[in-house]
């Protein structure tokens, strides 16, 4: 890959110092003074780069690897070429994520669109009743509504609209084109471009004359500290209760979360997931891409839901579910195996006849 001017290399950190910060063991102490400047995938890593490897299945990538150092566990360390220093750790993936944060801090949240901007752009509109702490940056064409409160160090991108009474915590990033209304955001929240928070939930009742009557939506959205929400994701406000996103939860692009949904702490929700209204999701739940969750159900703590699953009923804590309708993973895999076997047998019989 050509030199990436969007994220230039770090000035350099000593490998020994980096190992200490990552909690990894540097197997060759003589390499401690080597400088690490960037992160890279194994197959094209060059001098000054650090990479990581989780499986021997990727060992062919080592043939072209010229990295200064690699993060891996003890089993993989044995196959690493001698010119690459080994940082041994049982949590190579986590350590690599921390290395990226150290080497590329500017990539950890969306950057300002305009250079050299500090304070409030003269091209933004800020209502006179809004209250802003020190160090808030508001970029051109943003609209800050009446009685909005924004905490210190928060960045508001171009084209952002914050509705009346919205409260944003400290060190948040609200990226270009995001819309927030009827919502309270904690500290260090990141909204990526186009995210829409706090609009009406989808609620209608039958009309005696035919058609549907809109049910009023007068709840809020509560987003706790350290939540990250992807581009074009939508989170509806509650009907009468609140929609809540728990501390540390990470939500991918193009996710739809309905009214009154309550999501626990440190969950991971991948792109295209849809969660219908009044569903409760516990702590530490992982939901694969394009899964759909029915309304008014409860997903227990620590549940894992496979991609493209259809969840129609409660799932107990700690379970792994998949399929349509979603069922315990062992049952889902058995069903898939049986269907595959039937198809193989049909094709075999057809071949015999021909």
Write the layout of secondary structure elements.
Blueprint: E1 13-14, H1 15-22, E2 25-26, E3 35-36, E4 38-39, E5 49-52, E6 69-72, H2 74-77, E7 85-88, H3 92-103, E8 125-126, E9 131-132, E10 137-138, E11 143-144, E12 149-150, E13 155-156, E14 161-162, E15 167-168, E16 173-174, E17 179-180, E18 183-185, E19 190-191, E20 196-197, E21 204-206, E22 212-214, E23 221-223, E24 228-229, E25 234-235, E26 243-245, E27 250-251, E28 256-257, E29 262-263, E30 268-269, E31 274-275, E32 280-281, E33 286-287, E34 292-293, E35 298-299, E36 304-305, E37 310-311, E38 320-322, E39 327-328, H4 329-353
Active site: 259 (proton acceptor)
GO biological process, one term: lipid A biosynthetic process
EC number: 2.3.1.191
3D structure, described in words:
One of its GO terms (molecular function) is UDP-3-O-[(3R)-3-hydroxyacyl]-glucosamine N-acyltransferase activity. This is UDP-3-O-acylglucosamine N-acyltransferase. Keywords: Acyltransferase, Lipid A biosynthesis, Lipid biosynthesis, Lipid metabolism, Repeat, Transferase. With 354 residues, the chain is α/β, with parallel strands linked by helices. It has a domain at 13-108: MurE/MurF, N-terminal domain (Udp-n-acetylmuramoylalanyl-d-glutamate--2,6- Diaminopimelate Ligase, Chain: A, domain 1), CATH 3.40.1390.10. The chain is built from four helices and 39 strands. An eleven-stranded mixed β-sheet has the order 10-13-16-19-24-27-30-33-36-38-39, with helices on one face. A ten-stranded parallel β-sheet has the order 8-11-14-17-20-25-28-31-34-37, with no helix packed on it. The chain is flat, with a radius of gyration of 25 Å. The relative contact order is 0.06. The model has no long low-confidence stretch (mean pLDDT 94).
């Amino acid at each position: 890959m050509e030199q990436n001017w969007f994220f230039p290399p770090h000035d350099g950190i000593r490998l020994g110092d980096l190992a200490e910060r990552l909690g990894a063991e540097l197997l060759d102490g003589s390499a401690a003074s080597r400088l690490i400047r960037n992160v890279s995938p194994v197959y094209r890593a060059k001098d000054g780069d650090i990479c990581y490897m989780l499986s021997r299945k990727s060992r062919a990538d080592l043939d072209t690897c010229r990295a200064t150092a690699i993060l891996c566990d003890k089993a993989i360390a044995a196959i690493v070429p001698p010119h690459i220093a080994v940082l041994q750790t049982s949590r190579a993936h986590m350590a690599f994520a921390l290395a990226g944060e150290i080497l590329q801090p500017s990539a950890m949240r969306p950057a300002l669109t305009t250079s050299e901007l500090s304070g409030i752009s003269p091209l933004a509109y800020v209502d006179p009743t809004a209250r802003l702490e020190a160090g808030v940056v508001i970029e051109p064409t943003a609209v800050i509504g009446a009685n909005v409160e924004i905490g210190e160090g928060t960045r508001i991108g171009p084209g952002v609209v914050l509705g009346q009474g919205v409260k944003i915590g400290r060190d948040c990033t609200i990226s270009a084109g995001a819309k927030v209304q009827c919502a309270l955001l904690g500290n260090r929240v990141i909204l990526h471009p186009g995210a829409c928070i706090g609009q009406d939930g989808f609620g209608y009742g039958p009309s005696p004359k035919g058609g549907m009557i809109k049910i009023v939506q007068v709840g809020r959205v509560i987003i706790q500290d350290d939540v990250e929400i992807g581009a074009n994701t939508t989170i509806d406000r509650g009907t009468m209760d609140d929609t809540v996103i728990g501390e540390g939860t990470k939500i991918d692009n193009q996710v739809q979360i309905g009214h009154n949904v309550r999501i626990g702490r440190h969950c991971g929700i991948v792109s295209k997931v849809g969660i219908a209204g009044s569903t409760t999701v516990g702590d530490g739940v992982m939901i694969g891409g394009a899964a759909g969750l029915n309304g008014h159900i409860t997903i227990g703590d620590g549940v894992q839901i496979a991609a493209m699953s259809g969840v129609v009923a409660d799932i107990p804590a700690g379970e792994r579910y998949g399929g349509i309708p979603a069922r315990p993973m062992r049952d889902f895999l058995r069903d898939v195996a049986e269907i595959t076997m039937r198809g193989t047998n049909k094709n075999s019989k057809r071949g015999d006849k021909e």
